[in-house]
Amino acid sequence: MSFLQEVVDILLAYIVESFDRETKVIDFHYPNELMQRNNWELQDEPESLDDILVSCRATLKYAIKTAHPRYFNQLSTGLDMVGLAADWLTSTANTNMFTYEVAPVFVLLEYVTLKKMREIIGWQDGSGDGIFSPGGAISNMYAMLLARFKMFPEVKEKGMSSVPRLAAFTSEHSHFSIKKGAAALGIGTESVICVKGFVPFFVSATAGTTVYGAFDPLIAVSDICKKYNVWFHVDGAWGGSLLMSRRHRWKLDGVDRANSVTWNPHKMMSVPLQCSALLVREEGLMQNCNQMHACYLFQQDKHYDLSYDTGDKALQCGRHVDIFKLWLMWRAKGTIGFESQIDKCLELSEYLYNKIKDREGYEMVFDGKPQHTNVCFWYLPPGMRHIVDKEEKNKRLHKVAPVIKARMMEYGTTMVSYQPQGDKVNFFRMVISNPAATFEDIDFLIEEIERLGHDL
Amino acid sequence: MSFLQEVVDILLAYIVESFDRETKVIDFHYPNELMQRNNWELQDEPESLDDILVSCRATLKYAIKTAHPRYFNQLSTGLDMVGLAADWLTSTANTNMFTYEVAPVFVLLEYVTLKKMREIIGWQDGSGDGIFSPGGAISNMYAMLLARFKMFPEVKEKGMSSVPRLAAFTSEHSHFSIKKGAAALGIGTESVICVKGFVPFFVSATAGTTVYGAFDPLIAVSDICKKYNVWFHVDGAWGGSLLMSRRHRWKLDGVDRANSVTWNPHKMMSVPLQCSALLVREEGLMQNCNQMHACYLFQQDKHYDLSYDTGDKALQCGRHVDIFKLWLMWRAKGTIGFESQIDKCLELSEYLYNKIKDREGYEMVFDGKPQHTNVCFWYLPPGMRHIVDKEEKNKRLHKVAPVIKARMMEYGTTMVSYQPQGDKVNFFRMVISNPAATFEDIDFLIEEIERLGHDL
Ligand SMILES: Cc1ncc(COP(=O)(O)O)c(C=O)c1O
Ligand SMILES: Cc1ncc(COP(=O)(O)O)c(C=O)c1O
């Protein structure tokens, strides 16, 4: 107990530090170097609890401060105190979601929360089904699995040899998990994006693409799906949370026509990792698709209502309790708390966009105001601004972002992601999901990019 | 911060209570009743932090005390203080495993630990590959995915239509996740367990079956796999941990011949949920099988050694940090600490077996000493012991375990699982994985079964 309290004291100090702008976002070391900096090896003999505390401190010393107001590197950032407390409680309760028997409260909370999310999507009375899965990639895979099963239920027993060759449609900017899903399910990545002669069974529209933050036109896509009787999935892993904002939810107009929706509270809502939901319009389908009737878990003669044993809907057997942190945060903030947090992040990104769109040395990667918090741009150091030869310029520009990023990590002052895309050379992809970020942090980011990239 | 400390105080009190035999394992209520007992609804408006603390207390009040020394209901039980501290730290660090960039220490610790596990399996110098996945079911699915890809790499792009009909082999007592995997991957459940004319590609031997705790003869199975050039997977989700025991590891003789091994530290090693590893003998295969080269995560021009960006091996995109709790517990206990914990659980189950095998009113479900901690038995109340008619007896006996179990939950004194299997009517499946359990707890269980079942 006193050991646990000592660890808590270390953690509380770490949290205070993480929110402090004077602290480095990262104390970066190359893998080989980090391997040397501490003894990380596993031994036969036990260590003392004091040594264990030393390991905890070392681990935190080299960890990324994902709660830091200047950490912009991923879609998941920030640290909510209620969410964290809920995650600690979850670890302490240490149970599995597969049956009501071993997770009575958590099963109910999952029920309540999924229903609420379906109401927000706009399905009548919040009806339908759903599950929390270990991330958006798996949620998307569930959707594809359900779509295939819906069209060809025999696939469960007979496999893909019993069905025609299938095609799944999605945009070029969709998340790679759609292709991973197709590969895993035996559909094949070549069947994603329109191959002639194949039977279309699945369309995934993205609500908030990973890189540009773009929203596919859901109503138009749903019309086509309806016409051809194809499963309509909305991947709202990143953009789904905008449904909670009265100002921004129009970007998802038509989402209520979806057969399934992926929505990751662990991204834009700052719920601690992992927390991803798949919502399904049709009730019962998940159960039919995935159930295997394991009689050691799902005995039919239990003394309570068996519909609360949700485990057989899942691809997983044991399933981590991901619900409590979302539920508790929702109680603490209310829907309006999430709304204002989301609105604020979008304001910050609009501020960034307005600040750099006409600023010398910046070029935007796509036209127009960002739809989500993604702002994609190139920074051209002064020495490159007057190069006329397009090819020469791109060649040099391609190297700018990686160098600035490496320097950011070495100084530890901030972190933002960069990448190439198609024929576009490396650009910065700025995203904001941390409620702790402010206008000053955006100003800082721009200054820092210029400071670190000026000489390139 | 003071809010977090208040939650910690609640959690510490809960932990003390959980280990106290005077505390109920569960304060059971039927779903509808539990729904009424508290206000679990989500609202638009925020709640005060005091209300949040009330919710935390209510959640714990109705939670199962999985750490309780008399909780025997699942394969995952117990609560290790170092493991818990590590999980709290993990939540606080709140990051993703996909790149070294955002999880430098955790990526290294995963590397160190997977290597150690491969050494224990017996692969030369610990070479090979692996990943921590969200549970044994997913680990098994990975294995099947890799086996298919190994034999038919074109399946990734072209799907199942490019390959012959496949067959996977496993025993009747294998875990249902093998069938779930086959259904998801488009192989079909009918292809699991030998269909003529199909091409065998995958054999899953179970090291510690879920219900009987039996070990398939790995050497014999591996010989057959070698002869027919079929992927040899060992599902050691439950039994893999016996590799850490010098006394018991012979039960897995031949495991070093496997192409892949599932091993769940969250079961027999009492690591907090979720913690499951898939170990793979061949290096590079996971990467080839699963990679999609998402350039927003896995930029090729990063400034560090890219082999530490393990994310593209995974089916997932974001991946929860499951490694730290295992690593920290390993440091605290040493390999010998895990060994003695495992040996002790096996001793307890032998004690139980010896105690009931000739005791009046008990019948064992299978012959001989248990190989793992599973002890499967029927309890016959006095009034049923002299029934001669087999059918009549079975009919009545089938109802005994569910009633005793329901009574256990109502009194909250202990919990143990029961189930039917094939033509065998409901029996108790006792398993022991909680290091806090003692001989007295086993005595208690027997007394309690008799107390609650005497009148049936
Ligand atoms: C649009 C989209 N879908 C799915 C995912 C996958 O989510 P996760 O990382 O939770 O698996 C992402 C992750 O960035 C995403 O941006
Ligand atoms: C033999 C075996 N394999 C796989 C699994 C699945 O493990 P998990 O619950 O971690 O998905 C289990 C779970 O009981 C098991 O007993």
From TrEMBL, chains A, B:
SUPFAM superfamilies hit by this protein: PLP-dependent transferases
Cofactor(s) this protein cannot do without: pyridoxal 5'-phosphate
UniProt keywords, alphabetically: Cell membrane, Cell projection, Cytoplasm, Cytoplasmic vesicle, Decarboxylase, Golgi apparatus, Lipoprotein, Lyase, Membrane, Neurotransmitter biosynthesis, Palmitate, Phosphoprotein, Pyridoxal phosphate, Synapse
Predominant subcellular localization, coarse grouping: cytoplasm
Subcellular location: Cytoplasm, Cytosol; Cytoplasmic vesicle; Golgi apparatus membrane; Presynaptic cell membrane
Catalytic class of the enzyme: lyase
UniProt GO BP: gamma-aminobutyrate shunt; gamma-aminobutyric acid biosynthetic process
Domain of life per record: Eukaryota
Membrane topology label: Peripheral membrane protein; Lipid-anchor
Modified residues (N6-(pyridoxal phosphate)lysine): K267
Alphabetical list of Gene3D superfamilies matching this protein: 3.90.1150.170, Type I PLP-dependent aspartate aminotransferase-like (Major domain)
EC id: 4.1.1.15
One MF annotation (Gene Ontology) recorded for this entry: glutamate decarboxylase activity
Annotated Gene Ontology cellular component terms: cytoplasmic vesicle; cytosol; Golgi membrane; presynaptic membrane
Family: Belongs to the group II decarboxylase family.
Function, as annotated: Catalyzes the production of GABA.
Assembly with partners or alone: Homodimer.
Protein name: Glutamate decarboxylase 2
Species annotation: Gadus morhua
Gene symbol of the encoding locus: GAD2
